[in-house]
Amino acid sequence: xxxxxxxxxxxxxxAQSANRPHWVAGxxxxxxxxxxxxxxLAVFAIAGPLAWPxxxxxxxxxxxxxxxxxxxxxxDHLGRSVIARLAHAxxxxxxxxxxxxxxxxxxxxxxxxxxxxxxGWVDSVLHGLSEVFIALPALLVVLxxxxxxxxxxxxxxxxxxLAQWVEYxxxxxxxxxxxxxxxxxxxxxxxxxxxxxxxxxxxxxxLRPLLSTMATFGVGSSILALSTLGFVGIGVxxxxxxxxxxxxxxxxxxxxxxxxxxAPVLVLTTILIGLLGLRSKESRA
Amino acid sequence: xxxxxxxxVVTHGGKVLVEADQLDFERGQPVTIVGESGSxxxxxxxxxxxxxxxxxxxxxxxxxxxxxYDVGDQSNRRGLWGRTMSLLPQEPVLALDPTMRAGxxxxxxxxxxxxxxxxxxxxxxxxxxxxxxxxxxxxxxHTLSGGMAQRVAFAAATIxxxxxxxxxxxxxxxxxxxxxxxxxxxxxxxxxxxxxxxITHDLxxxxxxGGKVLVxxxxxxxxxxxxxxxxxxxEHPYTRRLLAAEPSHWRHPWMRNPLxxxxxxxxxxVSGEGLSKSFGSEQLFSDLSLEVRAGERIALSGPSGxxxxxxxxxxxxxxxxxxxxxxHADVLKRGRLQKLYQDPALAFPPxxxxxxxxxxVVRRHGLDLSRIEELMGSLRxxxxxxxxxxxxxSGGELQRIAIIRSMLLEPALVFADEPTSRLDLxxxxxTMRCLMEQVDRLDCTLVLVTHDDGLAAAVTDRSxxxxxxxxxxxxxxxxxxxxx
Lengths: 285, 484
Prior knowledge:
The structure holds two protein chains of two kinds. By secondary structure, chain A is mainly alpha-helical. Chain A is 70% helix and 0% strand. Chain A is built from ten helices and no strands. Chain A has helices spanning 2-10, 29-51, 82-118, 120-135, 138-148, 153-181, 183-190, 194-231, 243-250, 258-278. Chain A is elongated and about 75 Å long. Chain A starts with a helix and ends in a 7-residue tail after the last helix. Chain B has a six-stranded mixed β-sheet, sandwiched between helices. Helices cover 31% and strands 25% of the residues of chain B. Chain B folds into two domains: 2-244, 3-Layer(aba) Sandwich (Rossmann fold), CATH 3.40.50; 264-465, Rossmann fold (3-Layer(aba) Sandwich). Classes of the chains: A mainly alpha, B alpha/beta. At the A-B interface, helix 1, helix 7 and helix 8 of A face strand 15, helix 11 and helix 13 of B.
């Protein structure tokens, strides 16, 4: 043990770049590029709807108009501005995904900590519930929930969150169980440091890297699930622009206007590549 | 068989980590290197084997049976591994593959394994039976005790018939009985005509092996000579200090004569009655009654696996007993009952700076922040250490910070679970001194779990021994080496 420490100290220290800002230092090049991609998309999602506010205005005389300086992505089969629709769809996807993941993360984490901390019947009930959700396919959960409430946005969000909380719950429960049974928490108990200290110093620092990696992937899979639902026509209801729905609508005109179908695909790909590249290596520990 | 090391220098950057002019190893003549952690002992062994970490550079020559090898080129000795030289690794429990059965791991070491697997397995079984581990051949390493794992590692290291055996801290973490067995095993290797180099900070083991002893400090050999002389009449001041750090030689103001305190009858702090506990089918203790009185210093001793730590946790009410009751006096409420852990790194939140870990205690209990500085000073620790995380400081320093943390609440009883068993002698003395000065100052009760009888005698007034060890002698194999 002591020698392992000695060997560790001998290994060369990572080069510290003092003059770079804190959030850049220690990030890989991939992470910086991914962050830049996502930032560009976020700017598009926020500023796009302001620059092209009207996504529903039809002008049938401009049916399938080719891209131009004023309309960078041309017009669709109903003469609507494709860039306006794309900007609104991107915004919708990102906001929905972040909401779904936040809800799933919050509920899954709290339930996981509660189950690990209290044990007993709390654990049995929550664990049983999570087994039920694992047994059901995630898309089925979303479909059932949105069918009940007739496809409103909040039901889609709820459905996705219900399908996703289980993974957070199971990970947090397993990890917290180990931490809470360990000597560090036992020592904190003998020092009478109380539950707030255990949450803040013992659980949160250990769970945070895992949760942030899972949440990154969760955002990606929520966006994909949302556009899958749009693609098969049971997600967000038509005039509202949605990435999956836009792909479906553009398919019949692929030969005349390929940019119409490719633009939402490009946005989806960029989001997913950005999210995958963002994950940090330390979550392997 | 002869082995000679000439002009070895191991460096990292510009810093010299090991420097040795000439070392000779002969058959049947054990060489033992002693010294504290960080003195370069283990690096010397790895330099001989050719297993140094790649960022270190080594210079020098190694002569094996008249053939010279450049120590700087690590790969040229691979052909000797297993046939001529083998290494008995540190912490065998970690060195063994947890997914392979013991017998299979030993068989892999046989030189004929690639051509004759069945013969190799037979040889492994024979060797393990000779070591009294016939049944353990089919067992996975995690089911073995520390001593058994050490014997499996010994079998794996010696099955290839290598006459040169290098043992790196072989007695670390072993209890008294396992250490005696280990010394016998190493002696059996010598009696068979082998060459033995042992790296250790365990002076008892060095005495038991005899032969030649080298004392290392700060990368250099400061003293060498026959074990009988070096470890009895040392010349170098460092060797004297090393010997004085053995618990049986301690002289400290906080030490007290057990006879003087025999009539001490403080209030009962913890009383356990009719306690028993078992894990699965294994009964650790049954119908055990124990009283801990204020001001007492008690040792819980016994071989590893005898339930010392479990009994302690039962007495601290961290673990419910199967039968019996544990009563705590009111003075122990509000955190005045503290525990020190064998591995302090596990007792702190790993990603939190130590100043926050200690600061939380101070804030929670409304203490004065200057208490931390004051204790850091009296435990001879630099205040900068508080800005690091638990994994970034040495085990001895972290254990002292754990002592500070437990002393912040001025405990009435401290339960110390093998607090120094992973530390070398000098660090152990320093750590125990810090602990006992605080215990003495607060007139606090101490329950010390240890398997080191010398430490128990130096620190405590009375001892509770668990699990009378069965006194079955361990068979020692007969080894013969060809050539020479």
